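User: Sorry, what's this?
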Amino acid sequence: MELIYNINKTAEIPDVSKIGGKARNLAILSKGQIMVPKWIALTTEFFDEFMGIEIKKIDSILSKPCNTDENVIKLSKRITEMILEIDFSSKLKEAIENEMCASLSNNENSYFSVRSSAVDEDSADFSFAGQLESFLYIQNNDRLYESIKNCFASAFSERVMLYRQTHKIPFKGIRPAVIIQEMIFGDISGVMFTGNPLNNDIDQTLINSTYGIGEGIVSGELDADTWIVDNCDEIVEEKIVPKKEMITFDFHARYGTKKINVDPKKAEKSSLKASSVIKLKKIG
């Protein structure tokens, strides 16, 4: 396995153990000809290379019994500090730069998301949703590398490790991967479920959307419009809510996001046309 996975250079969709669940799902979507912003993934082998000889220390720490929350918190602190203290080697920086130049729109006007992709993230039995770090609208500068390190460290954060402890998920062999993906300056974003999670009806599609980027929906921070579409491509339920706020690029800081007010003229209006809702359902 390469240090960096590039969907354009191989027909293979790697195992979750190499690029994590989130990146593997991106690979499946990309191979299925679904429109996905360009991306690359730093593999679990990249993490091993980044840590160098320290990876053996991490594995040693993780292999020891850890039966109390206090010990888990101490373990987390020790490992995250180890990760954050390491600097990227020129070799690894060059590898990232080469792949970004070859596969992504990498110029002074380019912005990226840097997202964790854990090996056992969102499995059939457990969900790490919202517990791992993501950084939005990051340019290719020192902040990119700091974001990658923070994504690595988040796989060993206090919250994540306590979750593992509670659900008896093994500590041994934890390996994070990281996605670097082009950011879109979206006017409208949403989430689509190809089975209705509200009633477990697999013959219904549920679509949520709101203004701005999708962070507000996936975090549950913002109100969103809702549509339920049946298998005959008929909208059987529609709920349009006031959308007073949106999350967008922080133009003042030139990185990251901020919450702003929605134009009152469109706050009460539907964020999607009915024709767009049906088109999305057909794609799903």
User: Anything to note?
Assistant: The CA atoms of residues 100 and 106 lie 6 Å apart.
